[in-house]
Amino acid sequence: MKIKTKASLLSFFWLISILLPLTFIIYYLYAQYEKEEEMEILQFTANQILTHISPLELLQEDNNPMLRTYLPDYSMIRSLDLSSKVINQAANTSELAVIPPKHIDTQESYSQKLNDQTVMIVRTPIRQGTEIIGTLEIVTEPIELDQSLYRLIGIIGIVTLAAMLISLSASFLLSKLLFLPLSRMIQTMKEIEMSLAIKKLPLNRKSKDELYQLSETFNHLMERIEISMKKQRQFISDASHEFKTSLTIIEGYTSLIRRWGFENTDLHMEALNAVHDESKRMKHITYQLLELAELEHEERLTLCVFDLVTLCKESIQLLQPLSNKEFMLISSGSDMMIEADRLQMKQVILIILDNAMKYMKHRTYIYLSKTDSNHCIRFVDDGIGIPTEELPFVFERFYRVDRSRSRQTGGSGLGLAIAKCIVNLHKGTIQISNAPHYGTEVIVTIPICKTSNPF
């Protein structure tokens, strides 16, 4: 059974469970009100008789015509003496005569069953001054009241049945409207399954209910899947392009060895060295691609508090022996505590310094500073700089500003892409530009964590 059918039936039964008891309560209260009103009418008739007919006339025999004047339909009026003997009696139905007469000293009114029919009885004392000398008794069969109640039952039954049909139809219509986004979502998912094309649900901006939020979440999920698929296609395309180049070089040199390498030792060694270098390069690119893919899909950081000045010094010490060029660290304080992933931040610094080391002329400056909201690491080298039209593309995978130099320097074009991914994981920013009167300037900002105090 579909969920919208369950919801429709549940709302229908919920409405019926409220409607039926409410209907019975209304009928019961109306019937009680009508019976009380009928009793009041009988009591009023008894008071009228006692007002217009004297007590002695009521207890005088053969005065039935006087009582008949006040006789309602389907009723009986009789006067009784102190011994409950009937003195006068007027009736328009013989069935009520079987009710035994009863003398009372106080007024009473009630209803009882007679031959499966309800009858109403009102008894009022007949007083002569302050003395009670008899009883006036009025008995009626409320035929009109019963007919009115039967008509009410019929009307209530028809209205209830109509309400049940309308509520059932309305429940199914309402559930269909409410679960329309779910139906669209199911249809969209089926279309995605068949065509493998990413599609989104239309959103009703006027409604901000849970179904709207579900549709919005579904669209966000589709966006993430679409981005993931694009990254996967880009990953395959970039890797295929890079490996194709290296495999072409390896194939060319191996063919050269097969033809001439065994006759020419120098050519043989040159080919082997080229194949070895390209193999190492492919291995390095593979590791970097795997690392980049892991960073993009595993958004977990191992946060700790450490000194950013110390981390920069360690990074400089690692690279300084590899070059005769100088790295200069300039900090606004002797220590600068930061909360971040230490290993990943160290990798960012090494990537940027490694790029600077390949292209700088004499030295690279590393400036450390701190504001109320973030830490800032600024790298400025005196290298050849980057053409302005190339700056928007430097963080793309496998992008090289100078492709001829990249082969010589061993660059794969993945370093800055990895650095940008790490900085994004830290909710920070990384910018690259041409420094005035220098070469290239890279600025990395990492926001200060507000949830903890690193000091």
Give me the secondary-structure topology.
Blueprint: H1 3-52, H2 55-58, H3 64-68, E1 75-80, E2 86-91, E3 108-114, E4 117-128, E5 131-140, H4 143-178, H5 180-195, H6 210-261, H7 265-297, E6 303-307, H8 308-319, E7 326-331, E8 337-341, H9 342-359, E9 363-370, E10 374-381, H10 403-409, H11 415-425, E11 429-434, E12 440-447
Parallel strand pairs: 7-9
Antiparallel strand pairs: 1-2, 1-5, 3-4, 4-5, 6-8, 9-10, 10-12, 11-12
Q: Could you please describe the fold and organization of this structure?
A:
The protein has 455 residues and is of the alpha+beta class. The protein has three domains: 3-165, Beta-Lactamase (2-Layer Sandwich), CATH 3.30.450; 210-293, Signal transduction histidine kinase, dimerisation/phosphotransfer (DHp) domain (Helix Hairpins); 301-447, Heat Shock Protein 90, CATH 3.30.565.10. Helix content is 54%, strand content 19%. It contains eleven helices and twelve strands. It has helices at 3-52, 55-58, 64-68, 143-178, 180-195, 210-261, 265-297, 308-319, 342-359, 403-409, 415-425, and strands spanning 75-80, 86-91, 108-114, 117-128, 131-140, 303-307, 326-331, 337-341, 363-370, 374-381, 429-434, 440-447. The strands form three sheets. A five-stranded antiparallel beta sheet has the order 2-1-5-4-3. A five-stranded mixed beta sheet has the order 7-9-10-12-11. A two-stranded antiparallel ribbon has the order 6-8. A hairpin with a 2-residue loop joins strand 4 (117-128) and strand 5 (131-140). Helix 8 (308-319) packs across helix 9 and helix 9 packs antiparallel against helix 11 (415-425). It is rod-shaped, with a radius of gyration of 51 Å.
